Amino acid sequence: MSPSPAESLGFEFVDSALEARVRAGLEAVEQALRDSTRSEAPFVTEAAQHVMAAGGKRFRPLLVLLAAEFGPTPVAPEVVDSAVVVELTHVATLYHDDVMDEAALRRGASTANARWDNSVAILTGDWLFARASDLVASLGPEAVRIQARTFGRLVEGQIRETLGVTEGQDPLAHYLSVVADKTGSLIATSALFGARFAGASDEIQETLRAFGEEIGAAFQLADDILDVTSESGQSGKTPGTDLREGVPTLPVLIFRAQADPNDPADARLLELLDSDLTDDARLAEALAILREHSSLRQAEDDVRRRADDARKLLEDLPEGSARAALESLCDLVVTRSV
């Protein structure tokens, strides 16, 4: 049996029946993604499938399918359709993010903006949003409303990230609010869609939406930690990429909030963070200091707390293999970051 994209996360099933349903669902999602990204224009198809072909964790479709297990019809066609909607939306944001970040690589392959140009990447992202919108329309007006509000949060988060911290604003609080909107919102919608289209109760839908919001933020913050601690690039990018590019992350923001300029290690790290970290030697030194700093431990504790908060939300759900699977996602978020 070939591994599913979700297994690149290190996720393992403990129930064979649940595994079979989720595997079948993920295979259906993959086929639907290929179908949804085909155009009569060959170049559009090539550009739209460029990031998709590089692979991916499919974390959002996985969560849709697991959340659907809490409804009476977990294999309803609308469940797969909604999983495709959230993944198309996610992939579309990657095209736009890569343009804004001037990124050259995505999942080890050239980004669309690097392979072609910014205009092609932006327009391809727009086309993917259009495909997601077309599909979500078939799921009913409430699904369209949920998707529109989610998209609004995604864009607002990106705008606030682009504008940066305003005068008098706490940089860490600003960053966490950006993470909630840019990452947590779509993962929350993934869980909500799965429960909704499987026919789960309103109470279960809300519990899973809240779980998705919490675990989504934790998942992103765990990636922040991996950027510092990873030696093998298991985060999907070269360790220290965020540091090199000056991208604010949880460990760095915690460090800056409490750095003591009179402490030699703190003073040196502040100097490095404010310097040109495209230099490999400086980057290696900054990583070495940050790995030994208490701010990294505090960031890890924050991820643990968020995963625990997400786990507590699951106590309101019926016991069973689906709940156990979601609990294992909480464990996964912690173990991949520490």
Automatic annotation (TrEMBL):
Keywords: Magnesium, Metal-binding, Transferase. The keyword Transferase applies. GO terms for biological process: isoprenoid biosynthetic process. Its cofactor is Mg(2+). GO terms for molecular function: metal ion binding; prenyltransferase activity. InterPro entries: Isoprenoid_synthase_dom_sf (IPR008949), Polyprenyl_synt (IPR000092), Polyprenyl_synt_CS (IPR033749). It comes from the Bacteria. Belongs to the FPP/GGPP synthase family. This is Polyprenyl synthetase family protein.
